[in-house]
Fold these 4 entries.
Entry 1:
Amino acid sequence: MSKLLFSYSSISKKKSIKLLLISIIITSIFISIQPFEINNVRAHSPLADPIEIFSIWNDTAPLIDGQINFNETHPATEWNMAAVYNMYDDLQNIRAKLLLQNDNDHLYIGLDITAHITEDPVTEWGSSVYLDLNHNGIVDSSDRAIVFRNFSVTESVKFQYWNSISSSWEDLESSTPGTIFPSYDIIMNTYFGSSGLVTEPHRQYEYKIGLSELDLAPQDLVGVLFEATNKETSRSGSFTWPYIDSSFLDTTFREKPYSWGDLRLGHEFTYEAFVIEDNFNIKDGQVGENYGTFLATGDIDGDSELELIVSSNKTDASANYLLAIYKYVSGEITQIWNSWTAAYITVPFIVKGIATYDFDGNGEDEIFICGDDPRVIRLFDWSPSESDFLDQDTVFSNSVDLSGYIDIDDGLNYWTGDKQIVVGDVIGRVHFIDYSYTINKKFAYVGYIIPDDVDGTEPVTYIHDVEIGDMDNETDYQEVIILSQFSSNGSTALHIYEFYIDSYYDNPTYWASYHEDDLFENSSKLTYDYYGHTIIIDDVDNDGEKETIIVGRDYLKIFGPFTFSQTEPPLEIAINDGISNPNMGGGAGVIDLDDDGDKELIVGCNNGTIIVYEVIDSDSDPLIEDLSLNEEWILVPVLVKEIPY
């Protein structure tokens, strides 16, 4: 079972799919919130949450009176069908909400500033919308801003453009709240009082912008910055989307579109319907920057349908470790089990690695978990009547902590269908745990291997990922593929091992008749990346040949079974801008997400966005991989029903 290492979640943009208006659910492994460069998104914020947001199409226009009458259960209420996103203060606390919708003629923007509870601050206050209309990541004369400011009793709304000569925002026209601009189809208004999200009186803003004024059409993508502040001069008390960190305490972020996010306008045929669901966080309040998750799939209840298993690397207030299972029930994704309410199960550590397999043969996959702890723990004996596991045990206990990476398959090449558990640890060892299917039905430790030095100078010090798979499509032998750290600078290398009779052999390309993995001597050089953390062996391009996918800090790389000897991988996707150098990049998964019979490549961006791709091989020759991408979905977070302060 391939690991799924995702980012937040979820609105899909695939046609004819009913959208789910849900809150942030799954975050990238080791989030560091860095830019994701793909297609035409090239310059915008590494801090956007998500980097791309949607203005949902809806032909019911809100009244621009400043008051956000959002109500998720009453269709007649304005803003009820809007997409809802988080706005942040400069400490990245969620303190406000951004609402977006359009009717193909106008863009509607609502800023529900739930933390601004003073009606008239003594300093200058207001809100702004900044638009990088040509989406080029720099501010130039094509860009526009709508700025409202109130100082004492003086109020003004200004429609502005960027003057490249004076390097400043200049007025095109002025207005006042509630009054449409004389020459432009733009109106803004503000209100102080309760809203549909928070009953305590607070400041709210609404905008209506004619798309023709911005030369925009449905499905267009622009750079955006939304801001509200109650102390304009120092930006103290300011809330923004995207989140702007404390290094921007002055106002220069308004002149730097690379720190903004991206807005795509919804379209009536793509965003024709969606359902507001319950909060789909793994647990309320347990998401945020650097709170990543690990995921896996498995048939936990034995009904031949896969469930999604999700963990969080944050604990709740009671120090409970968070693990949950989701199932697609009656058209909705539903949480069917979690560790903090389980009656019989105790999760004793933060879960980083998850694998599933039916070792006891009862038709139900068992869950195997590990983390920064010496143990591998099994959850099993699922009870449909109680919706709970009835038992758990420790299948392996190491002398030192494990690294949190686990896989299950026939790494010992028994050829009998029997599988083993393989895990890595923090001192560079890869351990094998076998299972006795016929005698006592117990797990037994087999032993470990230590990957060889790759560069010939430094020993392996840490195991970053392990995967068992037939990476070269031999069908007879499976390889154990390892990503290891061998020096203190964080760079990782690829190791390929095959087990034959009683020993493991490293990259035995000189064996002509068997154990051929088609790697040349220095093949790991191609896969060098910092903090490599994911290996997937799967047929990602649906051509009958398995590919090897390797994910590190900077790149996702896809190799064909006969392409490791090439100077470049057949397909490489940048998942980091290479400037900020986070500890990890995004995650990835391969799964038939939409049940169309073809697998998709899921790339989890560490800024909160998930991109779902179709990978296409244009050459039928199995020795040649001519790979390209077709974007299918973009998944982003939207509604959070409760306002966490």
Note: Residues 110 and 206 are 5 Å apart (CA to CA).
Entry 2:
Amino acid sequence: MDDTAPSTKLPVAIIGAGPIGLAAAAHLLGRGIEPLILEAGDGVGAAVRDWGHVPMFSPWRWNIDAAARGLLEASGWTAPPDDVHPTGRDIHDLYLAPLARLPAIASRLRLGRRVVGVTRQGFGRVRTLGREAMPFEIHAARADGTVEVVFARAVIDASGTWFKAAPAGASGLPAPGEHALAARIRYGMPDVLGVDRGRYAGRRVLVIGSGHSAIGTLLALDELARGAPGTQVHWAVRRTDFARIYGGGDADQLAARGALGQQLRARVESGAIVVHAPFPVSGFRAEADAMRVLSLEGTSVVVDEAVVATGLRPDLSMLGELRLDLDPALECPRALAPLIDPNEHSCGTVRPHGARALSHPEREFYIAGMKSYGRAPTFLLATGYEQVRSIAAAIAGDHEAADRVEFALPETGVCSGPKTGAEASSSCCPAPARAATRGEVAAGAASSAGCCGQSADAGATTACCDQPEEAAAATGCCGPAKGVATVPSPNAVEARPDDRQFAVVAASPRRGCCSPAKG
């Protein structure tokens, strides 16, 4: 590091002790750099524990960081079988908890420290001269209300987004009545078949959202309904492009993810799940012993409970005194935004990326993991592991290693450009995964092409199929879903994407079908 950098005797502060934060610590230790992990909860993996009942789409081989694996195996730990799909609870109990117990991690872990502010020592956001020579000053609140101040040479924010759910309102704000009826509304993925069973059994339940959290909750409620008479499952969807919602099926290289959408399709087509679409939520209103959920379409549905699964948002409040370069729409690092924008991508077209794409004007500050995607959908844990490997290399001054991509991810079978209504489609044109070159990673940060090889400026509005439109529709490629049982709304509207999940992949370019963004 140069003479203007803060002292290398200070640690690198890591905010969050989830999978990505602990992986960051392992990579820093591997480079002889001292980490300091600040965790708000009373144990590691607080978010993972919260969704502990949820099975992962990806098997164990994608969910264990290489540097963390090395530390664990040196202690005699045996990894779970590569091809087994863990639940969140498994991730915590079999991986994160043993990792946190290692002396190398435990001695650098401070629990019950909620970071409330990050700045430069003696410098607010405005002051420039001499800024980079000052260490980071981090304020962490303890449970008793006192604030601990720590100093660091660099900061990696891996605090995630799990505890900041997006509201139900289609306009991005809480819908009128949403707060007043909070006792009937849950966010995320309740444990429908476990601790929350009594809340939903025999009730009319509306799930709002169309991402994988919504799909998983719908399937759990459907299973509950089979054994709990009177349980009714309703699904509110902002758009009507069900082929994209159901996903890639057999084309998805993560089989568990592909199967999930197909299970939902079967239950919808059987009539077990009542679909309300398009149904952009506009309000909630108390009605007798229930509530009425209203739509911008002028329709409504009366239910007892609602589960809102419309995505997550980053909490940026603690970063107000730092100089960040964030995309104004997605609230992610600006260089990353073209690679993950849900207006342009619904498939595995995101290039692997590292420190360069995640850096900010505030030197040596990085946002990694789920939070790095801002409001865009989430990604595989392996994506975050590659991010922090690259960041640790950059902090160590090894820029060649920071720029080198060392992995390739499985892609999703959902590879269409943005479509609306009946025009929406799902691609059947997967490209083989491979590792990108160093040059491709640098180029990816300046992406100007959208999914399917079209210019993002022009807007990717055609389907990613080489077949003629008629043939594609007949084979199910790029055609609307058939046989969907819906409750129609009077007017079709263009609906914005909400919380679809994207896999990150380095894909070989293929003409007209899900080619990666080009520099």
Note: Residues 412-519 have pLDDT under 50 and may be disordered.
Entry 3:
Amino acid sequence: MSLLRAASLLGALALCSCLDFDARLASCRDAGVWICGASDAGGTGGGTGGGSIDGPDGLVCNGDWCWDHPRPTGVTLRSVWGTSPTDVWVGGEKGTVVHFDGAKWTSHSQDPTLNFNSICGHGSDVYFGADHFQGTLDRLHKWNGAWSTIEGTKENIYQLQCGASNLWIARVHGASAMPWAATSPRPRYTAAGDELCVAVAETGPEECVVACHSDGVTPPRFGRMHPCDGGLEYELVDTDGGLGSSFHPQTLWTDPNRGVLAGISALSGEIWERNAGWAPLWRSQGPGDVYAGAPYANGSIAVGSYGLVVDLTDAGAATTRIQSFGNGYLYGVWAPPSGNAWVVGERGCIRERQGSTWVPRSDCDVGFEDVASVPQLFGVTTNALWGRTDAGWTRVKSLEPGQVALWERPDGGGFAHLTDTSLSSNAVKLPLTLSGARGMYVVSDQRVVIRTGGQQLIDTNLDSGTRLPFDAGVGLSILTGNPVDGTVWAAGEGGTVLRSEAAGVWVAEDAGVTTDISDLAVGFGRVWLVSGRTVATRTSGGAWTSAVLTEGEFTRVLPVDAESALLFRGVDAALRIDSSFTTTPSSAPPTELTGALFLRGDEAWGVGLYGGVVRFRVAR
């Protein structure tokens, strides 16, 4: 039947399905599967596969890891600054620094243990303030065609502001100023021992105001505002254990019409104005925070939690909220004099305001709702089917909760890269409404296995329409298989491992594991699983062997050849392990891998948190 091509597409992209590459190559090509369109020996492949670092396909990489969705990156972005819409710098977590030239993004990423919190520029110099999330205090970074560091700021930096004559720096223990002709900053305000200074704004020539927290005393003190001369002009003391504990200034900036403004994290998001004293100028109608603000010709733009964007042009009365992956947090804003504005935030979101319209400058307008439950890159979430075209990721069709569907083109030409969003009703060949449907593995043109998210598998014969439910008795979180011999695997709680070679017939295997299995993968004639500190493996038809890892717990496994696999844990560890359980360090991914891992040629692909898709260059 013509559903073979649809089945081949989903089957080819299930967990590790491209590992047995030669046996699947013909069917992958027949199905038009872009990710499999290359020889195992290498090559460029179809679509955007095989892109080079900072190449024309827009990939942004750091070491051997490249982001594919969202582009240019999927990490949380915390700062943005530029000189024009064709010269924009963005910084974020894990050492991420990218530059936009009006057409494409280019990576200038640094040490992945850095978080770039603030950016501003003067002349041809662009300054980046960072904190070091692993605890080592860092320096001020500068770009002028090449990277350099400026000594004298060996503390975590939270905010920079480029003033008329100085670069102002808010750091852990106070604030500094660096005259443009100087090579190192000089202290202007030294914090008290219990203070953490997070923001600074220029108030005049050689003058500034600094915002600090002081919560190391009893009662805690919040919202401490200091002029550069070291005085105290405002302080909120927590007297009732409620208001003060949530009142934190997060940022300061200078508005052309109002002077210095402060973004506040409070019981509701607030913006305060420094006039004769400090007083609220704008207050959100709901809970939230204001994380960053920036001036432009007619006022200011401020951003914060839950996709908050505030335009202060109309005396603080005008408010706009935009969505970033479902009201994701926005942490950085830059507003050039032209009136456009750029905002950045969670999960790699970048948007530019053009007039009254917000235009995405990254893939933040497309994301997976429930990636942790998706066992293949082309597959089903709880409310959508997702597919990859040469142009990027797209949601083909929304589904009702719990619904699973396969589509084919009416002319029998396969999925056509999942670009046909006007599929007719007769193109839906297998609608299955299941309570809590979580994932699917396509075995062949006659067989599809669906995991419901509980204890049940639905093993379906497409020719007859027969559904053969199987109750495992325990929760199942993994569903994958070997597309060469048709074997299907499921695994989950309590070390449960199930294998099926025929529809509806499932056999339990004893892998010597009694704790919950976090991942199981098949490839190159070998099965691997990880369960906490335990890793186990067996060849086809062989016995299971296992070992306890001294390096800690790992959550994902990817076979890379007949004798070895890669293990991943979060974003801080990765190992290569062989069948004798000898381990060597490997590069850690830029996002926690929660879904599919599979191989194409010498590139591994994985799904991470919030729909992030990354690729890794595997050394053989």
Note: Residues 1-57, 366-383, 407-432 have pLDDT under 50 and may be disordered.
Entry 4:
Amino acid sequence: MDDPTAAIATVVAVGVVAQWVATKLKIPSILLLLGAGLAAGPGLDVIDPDALLGDLLFPVVSMGVALLLFEGGLGLHRSELGSWSGVLVRLLTVGVAITGVVAAIAAATVGGLSLETAVVFGAIMTVTGPTVIIPLLRQTRLRPRVARVLRWEGIAIGAVGATLAIVVLEAVVLAGEGPVVIAREVLLTAVVGSGIGLATAMALAWALGHRLVPDHIQNAVIIAAVLVAFALANHWREEGGLFAATVLGIALANQRRAPVRHVVEFQENLGVLLIGSIFVLLGARVEAQDLRANLVPALAVLAVLVFVARPLSVAASTWRSSLTRQERLYIAGVAPRGIVAASVSALFALKLEAAGVQGSTDLAALTFVVVAGTVVVYGLGAGPLSRRLRLKVPDPTGVALIGAPPWAVELGRLLQRVEVSVLVVSTDEEEIRQAQQADLLVYNGRLAHRDLAETVEAMGVRLALAVSHREELRAFGAERFVHLLGRANVYEMPRNAEERAQSHGGAGGHEVRELGVGLTSADVIAMVAAGATTELVSRVELETRGEGFFPLLTASNGRASVVAGPVDGSAEWVIGVRAAAGTVLREPVDAASDAQEGRPPTTVPPEPGDEPGYFSNELE
């Protein structure tokens, strides 16, 4: 593709679409990303990364990896470190050593690499990819302890393994330096990178805590700080930038001076673009002939890594730990490689070639096949293995009610009748008392505290409904649950007709989805005051008793869904609000457009001085 603009747009679009499709198919996104890169590069010759970016290719990839490590670091809280912290330390030391040695031996014996290149390959293979582990953990719901071990290892080992790899490369190129020099170089790189990352985090926390940075540019300032810290650390110590980015993320996540929750959400969105683009670019760089030449040796090396290196390293690292046998087996069965290994190997191949080291041209291709192979093996096997070892947590089906007015308490009670778990989130003493009397589980702690996240995870909450009549609880609660569950799983009932009108599209609309199509919070309050009730009816009964009934939720097989239009014919139960006889329907003048969009008319009792543009019809 000759047009650089079109080529860049293609890279971004292919990366995002591949992840979108992978999410729908519930498979690891890297599988489609690598395939898309191969198809766009050696397959169709649509993208040539070297011609597109030239000398900027590897700096761009390196900065992208740094931002991904920073994002991963933001998810590591020291409160998660429990009795298994020693396991993590051993995985980063003993486990790395075992993996590197076994991988180097395999690359030299069955992979066909020279001894020098095989040693570099072994160091590269110590890195389990955080860009693969984290999406994999999102798709495979595991017991918290196992998930935390894998997440901490995947993120922390990125900096450790990459630093080890660069030091090993320097030792191979210099050909004569001993283990003392290697240890010194690793220590210096870790100290310099970690120091710069920690200092940057302290400066950011101080500036954010003192409100020196306006809200609308905080994300930009933080990203700029990450890139500056990465560049400074790399300037003083090559690959020290990976340490700086990781430590910066961990330090920001564990300080209490300034909130960074909004940064986490932004970084997740940025991560989708980075992961997609980088994998497509790296996949497109691989030459087809190199892949064919190294396919069989790479598969042999892959078998050694999966069945020998990983089990040995995990067995040594978890010996006499508090982890159960099933947990140790699962950790031994998950170790995919990702962007860090692929990008570092491509860079190292060029440096080894420039130094005249034999076998350097095969390093990138061999690494690419092994990376793709580990993703296929672990990506497709992680889910079945978790079920076989009984470590998989059931998919969430629960509903969280943000606020608990009387009608919502009854809604929660009816949900429990159809085997849907309910969590009430409120700070109002009267609401809490009524919810508890209805045998509903109540969370009345701080919304910003990690206890809420742990409660939501333990309860298996899938949907959140913001129904509080108190604006501050509803708004902040919806924002908090957007972070916990994703925007698509949080619903809010508009306060009034004006807010409902604003919620339909445009930059000024609501950031969460609408609950109660055609209803507002003010409507429900008025309906309840006039004698409306919250009811549970069967789908068949709805057809005969639908007059004056406004469906909110459907439930089937212990799983609830929000009604966003006509009630789904496959629904087993329907929960909604039934207006009392004699209640007045107040309909908008544009009722025809409302009906076309599937919104029922709003139901309220008649009030003096109705708003202009509305008229009333009595219910029979």
Note: Confidence is low (pLDDT under 50) at residues 504-510, 585-620.
